[in-house]
Automatic annotation (TrEMBL):
<feature type="domain" description="AMP-binding enzyme C-terminal">
    <location>
        <begin position="407"/>
        <end position="481"/>
    </location>
</feature>
<dbReference type="GO" id="GO:0006631">
    <property type="term" value="P:fatty acid metabolic process"/>
</dbReference>
<dbReference type="InterPro" id="IPR042099">
    <property type="entry name" value="ANL_N_sf"/>
</dbReference>
<comment type="similarity">
    <text>Belongs to the ATP-dependent AMP-binding enzyme family.</text>
</comment>
<dbReference type="GO" id="GO:0031956">
    <property type="term" value="F:medium-chain fatty acid-CoA ligase activity"/>
</dbReference>
<dbReference type="InterPro" id="IPR025110">
    <property type="entry name" value="AMP-bd_C"/>
</dbReference>
<dbReference type="InterPro" id="IPR000873">
    <property type="entry name" value="AMP-dep_synth/lig_dom"/>
</dbReference>
<dbReference type="Pfam" id="PF13193">
    <property type="entry name" value="AMP-binding_C"/>
</dbReference>
<dbReference type="InterPro" id="IPR045851">
    <property type="entry name" value="AMP-bd_C_sf"/>
</dbReference>
<protein>
    <submittedName>
        <fullName>Malonyl-CoA/methylmalonyl-CoA synthetase</fullName>
    </submittedName>
</protein>
<dbReference type="InterPro" id="IPR020845">
    <property type="entry name" value="AMP-binding_CS"/>
</dbReference>
<feature type="domain" description="AMP-dependent synthetase/ligase">
    <location>
        <begin position="6"/>
        <end position="356"/>
    </location>
</feature>
<dbReference type="Pfam" id="PF00501">
    <property type="entry name" value="AMP-binding"/>
</dbReference>
Length: 496
């Protein structure tokens, strides 16, 4: 039996999942996932890595289906509930899925697919309470395929084994000191490693409780917090930004109630995108907590983290987790000196097995001696890693300089009339790239000439944007990350 599922037997009476107003024990999760596994097998002894996709809201239902797929020997392929039919169909075809499990709320979305003969369709609500013999699953077997956002082409399926997943879970549960007394609120998408591994799987490994909130609502989140049952929270910077904005509009009495509840948390984490310093400072004022920043990717789970105990440096992602090796290298894969910028490369059992059916892409993302090339640029400063940006996205090469877009964004957010921003590099014949910024303004009368004058006191001249556009909001994917390639297209027609 897989260790994640085997450990559930130690916590049978504990509440594993809270969702939809109901509480479910680990025993209920074991029973339900066994029934699902038996029905998926349909008389077979083992699914033998058949791909099973599922389109289900975050819930006990989602969790038991995920476990059921694993217990039957299948590869779990979670689908994004916000994706259009074309994106769903792409995943079905790319994985050559044999089974699609869907919640009743998504029947109309997938209706055009239901006549396909190559896929067995199962309503998530239709599983019966049946029990039977399940296969013994080896830890080296493929367990899950999560699709990347596809910012540089068609999305790629990241294949993780059960060993990869177990390593990712134990690295975090040990470092962040999870226990069965923990209770976490999960508001993250469940087709992404952040929600699946960092929150749900870490909680279930530990015998803790994972509570789901299906639809994001700052009001509902704060109401749950005020019950003072939750003691962990993990989110992306966009969520913290929205929570801060909602808190700012509460009465002083309500603000104090929320802040009192937050003060009693033991850990709050931010990840999946760079945390603006302004958000970091405002959340500290509201919650009395210094957000823990960490670094990871779909391909490897988490690899680097600020300390659970000890000083956390804003803008830093900390040190490598135990059992994970990290290095910074230049364009020739030569290790750079401390203080010099280099690409983050990682080795460890946390690193994924392959991109699904893409051997060349898999080969290209590893060095000849097995280092995973993340494409992220960082610098090592006093033993801590600091992200400078994404290679070719956040690193702008202009006039011979390598410029961090994230650094410029951080400065722009300090301006009193700027609510949010994103900085990109645009192709330029003379400079290689020219710096451009998209702004979300608090004051629509902001003058770009005045802004540039203000920036001259904050940044050297070669780091000041040459082009601007103003938007009501920045384009983002479902994880809240700004889609900078989309921004580049906007500049082609809307340059100011």
């Amino acid at each position: 039996m897989l260790k994640l599922i085997e450990r559930a037997n130690n916590f049978k009476e504990n509440i594993a999942i809270k969702s939809g107003g109901y509480s479910y024990t680990y025993q209920a999760l074991l029973n339900r996932s066994e029934s699902i596994a038996v029905e998926l097998l349909a008389g077979k002894k083992d699914l033998e890595e058949e791909r099973v996709t599922f389109l289900v809201d975050p819930s006990f239902k989602y969790t038991s289906i995920q476990w059921g797929i694993w217990r039957a020997g299948g590869i779990a392929v979670p689908l994004c509930v916000k994706h259009p039919l074309a994106s769903i169909e792409y995943v079905l075809d790319d994985t050559k899925t044999s089974i699609l499990i869907y919640g009743k709320e998504y029947k109309s979305l997938i209706a055009p697919l239901l006549n396909r003969k190559d896929i067995r369709f199962i309503k998530a609500e239709s599983f019966e309470n049946i029990f039977g013999i399940l296969p013994d699953i080896e830890i080296e077997r493929r367990a899950m395929i999560i699709y990347t956002s596809g910012t540089t082409g068609a999305p790629k399926g990241v294949v993780s084994t059960h060993k990869n997943i177990e390593t990712q879970i134990t690295g975090l549960t040990n470092f962040w000191e999870w226990t069965e007394n923990d209770h976490i609120l999960n508001v993250l998408p469940m087709h992404h490693v952040h929600g699946i591994i960092n929150v749900l799987s870490c909680a279930l490994w530990s015998g803790a409780c994972c509570e789901f909130l299906i639809k994001f609502s700052p009001k509902d989140i704060f109401e749950i917090f005020k019950k003072q049952e939750i003691n962990l929270f993990m989110a992306v910077p966009t969520i913290y930004f929205k929570l801060i904005a909602y808190w700012d509009n509460l009465s002083t009495l309500e603000q104090n109630k929320v802040s009192l509840a937050l003060k009693n948390f033991r850990l709050m984490v931010s990840g999946s995108a760079a945390l603006p310093l302004s958000v970091h400072e405002k959340w500290k004022r509201i919650s009395h907590h210094v957000l823990l920043e960490r670094y990871g990717m779909t391909e490897m789970g988490m690899a680097i983290s600020n300390p659970y105990k000890g000083d956390r440096i804003p803008g830093s992602i900390g040190k490598p987790l135990k059992g994970i090796t990290v290095r910074l290298v230049d364009e020739n894969n030569k290790i750079v000196e401390p203080g010099e910028a280099g690409e983050i490369q990682v080795k460890g059992d946390n690193v994924f097995k392959e991109y699904w059916n893409k051997p060349e892409a898999t080969k290209d993302t590893f060095t000849s001696n097995g280092w995973f090339k993340t494409g992220d640029i960082a610098v090592l400063d006093n033993g801590n890693y600091k992200i400078l940006g994404r290679n070719s996205i956040d690193i702008i090469k202009s006039g011979g300089y390598k410029i961090s877009a994230l650094e410029i964004e951080e400065v722009l957010r300090l301006h009193q009339d700027i609510k949010d921003c994103a900085v990109i590099g645009l192709p330029d014949e003379e400079w290689g790239e020219t710096i451009a910024a998209s702004l979300v303004l608090k004051n629509a009368n902001l003058s770009f000439d005045n802004l540039n004058y203000w920036l001259k006191g904050k940044l050297p001249g070669y780091k000041i944007p040459r082009k601007y556009i103003v938007q009501s909001d920045l384009p983002r994917n479902v994880m809240g990350k700004v889609t900078k390639n989309e921004l580049k297209n906007l500049f082609n027609v809307d340059i100011l």
